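Retry 2 of 3 after timeout on previous attempt. Resubmitting structure tokens to design endpoint.
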């Protein structure tokens, strides 16, 4: 029986005021273009020992855009922010400056002898957005405006509670995708940030190859992650969907390698094999490969037996990995099988399968989900996920006769109270979003009892903060064709 989606059973709830959607006010219409002006001046003393190559002037120890050439006087930085001091180095001399605005018209003057170089605080062409919120809104949004078009550059943004852009990062090899800008506060209070950046277009499938960039509290890059060499496999690029920072130098990373596997039950035996690695201090301490579990081949609901024998089949499509806070095992979402599985973090064995064609929990048609994202387990035993509920023709063939076919294109947030020992759903809640999200998407419970929804591929809305009464506290939209794979919110 369907019950009201009571988020208070899933997260800690605070007493909150109720606001109607009409109370939202347009706090910012994105990046300001209000005239060319200098906001800071730095003077450096040139040294004869300095080498004037592309590394001569750097921002937070990264090269300029375009690479430095002493005959060019206008530059951008790969990354800029108003939250922390910016370190600018000329040769071996370093100075720090703090700025209060990101604008393609505002610049820092860098004096080196008789030469003056302009470092603009924002790039021309940054994706514009519309931010609306209730009065006294609190919290920063973390989003990655990007597009399916390879001709449109991608960025990572932090947008503050007033709608002001306070951080951006551009891809070092434009225009490829960036995804999943996130913030981590460790138990000792240390702050880190991470973001995925695509660096090639080797795959025609629904994921990108690239690396995870790890930054310290000042947004300085301190690490770049790829899959580590392990059991005969060389280092390999990461994919863009899933990443978790568990501690300093301790990460969960995901990727794919392409293989020909005779056990595949289709004529086309080329597969994209999902890989999970837990790495700590540069060593693999746990790994999981989808091809080690051939029973999962038959769980495929989408890209199965592709007639193009030159194409690798993304038969599972891993799109999220989370640690169950109750037993430290892994909750993994596979969109192409419309299934969430739990993996033992020591043995790698599958503990249970939830949803899809081999569901261990006997889900009802009402509870059945399609192409889900962002599956997580809460401390009080609720499995929560973003149900895209968007089929393709191959899914329809697999589900003929199920009532789920009559309730498509209605994306939802779902919560299941699980009895894992007896493989039963003992409570179920849903929250209908009133929007169709074909792919991507995210769901973040907030400590005030609200939840932040990332609307993924929906080009009309990027993110909303809602409560159980469907009241809106914030909305964010990008200019088309930009979308954001996920969205997060954090207090500063």
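Retry 2 succeeded. Sequence:
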């Amino acid at each position: 029986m369907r019950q009201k989606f009571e988020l208070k059973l899933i997260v800690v709830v605070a007493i909150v005021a109720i606001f109607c959607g009409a109370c939202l006010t347009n706090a910012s219409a994105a990046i300001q273009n209000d005239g060319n002006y200098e906001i800071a001046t730095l003077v450096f003393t040139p040294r004869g020992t300095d080498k004037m190559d592309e590394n001569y002037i750097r921002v937070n120890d990264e090269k300029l855009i375009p690479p430095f050439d002493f005959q060019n006087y206008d530059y951008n930085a790969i990354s800029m922010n108003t939250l922390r001091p910016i370190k600018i180095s000329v040769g071996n001399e370093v100075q720090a400056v703090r700025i209060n605005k990101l604008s393609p018209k505002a610049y820092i003057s860098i004096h080196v002898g008789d030469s003056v170089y302009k470092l603009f605080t924002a790039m021309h062409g940054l994706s514009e957005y519309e931010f609306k919120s209730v009065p006294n809104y609190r919290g920063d949004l973390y989003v990655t405006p990007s597009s399916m078009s390879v001709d449109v550059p991608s960025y990572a943004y932090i947008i503050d509670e007033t709608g002001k852009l306070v951080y951006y990062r551009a891809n070092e090899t434009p225009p490829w995708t960036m995804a999943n800008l996130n913030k981590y506060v460790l138990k000792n209070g240390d702050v880190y940030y991470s973001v995925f950046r695509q660096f090639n277009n080797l795959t025609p499938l629904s994921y990108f190859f690239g690396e995870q960039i790890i930054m310290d509290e000042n947004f300085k890059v301190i690490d770049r992650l790829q899959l580590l060499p392990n059991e005969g496999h060389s280092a390999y690029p990461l994919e863009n969907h899933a990443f978790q920072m568990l501690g300093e130098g301790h990460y969960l990373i995901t990727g794919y390698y392409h293989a020909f596997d005779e056990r595949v039950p289709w004529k086309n035996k080329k597969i994209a094999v999902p890989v999970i690695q837990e790495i700590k201090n540069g060593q693999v301490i746990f790994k999981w490969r989808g091809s080690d579990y051939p029973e999962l081949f038959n769980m495929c609901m989408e890209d199965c037996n592709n007639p193009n024998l030159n194409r690798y089949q993304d038969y599972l499509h891993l799109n999220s990995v989370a640690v169950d806070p109750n037993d430290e095992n892994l909750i993994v979402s596979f969109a192409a099988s419309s299934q969430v599985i739990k993996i033992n973090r020591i043995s790698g064995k599958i503990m249970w399968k939830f949803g899809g064609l081999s569901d261990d929990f006997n889900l009802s048609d009402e509870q059945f989900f399609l192409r889900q994202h962002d599956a997580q387990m809460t401390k009080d035993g609720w499995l929560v996920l973003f149900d895209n509920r968007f089929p393709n023709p191959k899914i329809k063939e697999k589900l003929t006769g199920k009532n789920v076919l009559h309730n498509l294109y209605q994306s939802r947030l779902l919560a299941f109270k699980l009895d894992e020992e007896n493989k039963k759903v003992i409570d179920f809640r849903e929250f209908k979003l009133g929007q169709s999200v074909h792919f991507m998407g995210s769901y973040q419970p907030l400590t005030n009892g609200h939840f932040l929804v990332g609307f993924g591929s929906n080009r009309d809305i990027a993110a909303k903060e809602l409560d159980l009464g469907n009241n809106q506290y914030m909305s964010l939209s990008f200019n088309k064709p930009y979308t954001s794979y996920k969205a997060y919110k954090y207090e500063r």
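Attempt log closed. The longest strand covers residues 250-260.
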